[in-house]
Design goal:
Layout (H helix, E strand, L loop, with lengths): L1 E2 L2 H9 L16 E2 L7 E10 L4 H14 L10 H5 L10 E11 L7 E2 L1 H8 L7 E7 L4 E2 L8 E7 L6 E8 L6 H4 L22 H19 L6 E2 L30 E2 L6 E2 L1 E2 L5 E2 L4 E3 L4 E3 L3
Parallel strand pairs: 3-4, 3-6, 5-7, 6-9
Antiparallel strand pairs: 1-8, 2-10, 8-9, 11-12, 13-14, 15-16
Pfam families: Phi_1
Family: Belongs to the EXORDIUM family.
Organism: Thalictrum thalictroides
Length: 296
């Protein structure tokens, strides 16, 4: 199981005092551990746990549909960012939106363990799918905020014949936006610079997109803990988490880098998707250059 570990991230952010670019400090190599990567067509099934507004759901749905969009979108595009995953050994995953389950009545309560997240994820199809549990702002998940903002892993299906990939991301807006929704909220550590304006006007959900992008990239490049990662398998640095903190050129600890700004709304973004949506996507490691790639 791989998680987005933010205490280590903030430590990396602020132990450095220089303004050297984060992505150029040291040569970065993610070792390939000879395991299976997700390749080919996969559906992304969404389990909405708790109350999300239709607009909040549309922000994330549009993001999923932007990953492999056949629609022409203005540059820099979400699909260009996702194409970096094609450069990993064994090639690309084509992700399309699959089933959606609404669990607005909190069927397992408002405090969940990871085992319950896996149980929720298993309620959708498990063949050639990534089952993503998205928890609302009033749902506490074990480890949420203390050491992670999202996670991904694999589990055995009901038939016990094959594994399926799952992921979880939570809305942090009322629990820990300074950890899990940065740079749209002031960080809990380090320089208290003004936060950026969220591209879709929702600090929690725009933060979820950053973390969802992180776990999806980790899922396809390290689905079973033997793909691409650096460090221990129990707490790996993966395709995106190895590049944490960089969103544009010139990024350094505490500064996300040069990003684009919408002239009308003042919102910051670095990627464009379907239906006119704008997003902020984190840097992703490019195995061909052994460096973190940003869209701007």
């Amino acid at each position: 199981m791989a998680s987005i570990y933010y205490f280590a991230i903030f430590l990396l952010f602020f132990i450095h005092s220089s303004k050297a670019e984060l992505v150029k400090e040291q040569p970065l190599v993610l070792q390939y551990h000879n395991g299976v990567l997700l390749k080919g067509d996969y559906t992304v099934n969404l389990i909405w746990y708790g109350k999300f507004t239709p607009i909040q759901r549309s922000i994330i749905i549009d993001f999923i549909q932007s990953l492999n969009s056949v629609k022409k979108t203005p540059a820099p595009s979400v699909s260009t960012w996702w194409k970096i995953t094609e450069k990993y050994k064994a090639g690309s995953s084509n992700l399309v939106l699959g089933k959606q389950i609404l669990d607005e009545n909190y069927s397992l309560g408002k405090s969940l363990k990871i085992s319950q997240i896996i149980s929720l994820a298993s309620k959708t199809g498990v063949k050639n799918s990534i089952n993503v549990v998205l928890t609302a702002k009033d749902v506490f998940v074990d480890g949420f905020c203390r050491n992670k903002c999202g996670t991904h892993g694999s589990a055995m299906g009901i038939s016990k014949r094959s594994k399926f990939a799952y992921a979880w991301v939570g809305n942090s807006v009322s629990q820990c936006p300074g950890q899990c929704a940065w740079p749209f909220h002031q960080p809990i550590y380090g320089p208290q610079t003004p936060p950026l304006v969220a591209p879709n006007g929702d600090v929690g959900v725009d933060g979820m997109v950053i973390n969802l992008a992180t776990v999806l990239a980790g899922t396809v490049t390290n689905p079973f803990n033997n793909g691409y990662y650096q460090g221990p398998a129990s707490a790996p640095l993966e395709a995106v988490s190895a590049c944490t903190g960089a969103f544009g050129k010139g990024a350094y600890p505490g500064y996300p880098g040069e990003v684009l700004v919408d002239k009308i709304t003042g919102a910051s973004y670095n990627a464009q998707g379907v239906n006119g949506r704008k997003y902020m996507l984190p840097a992703i490691w490019n195995p061909q250059t052994s460096a973190c790639f940003t869209l701007v």
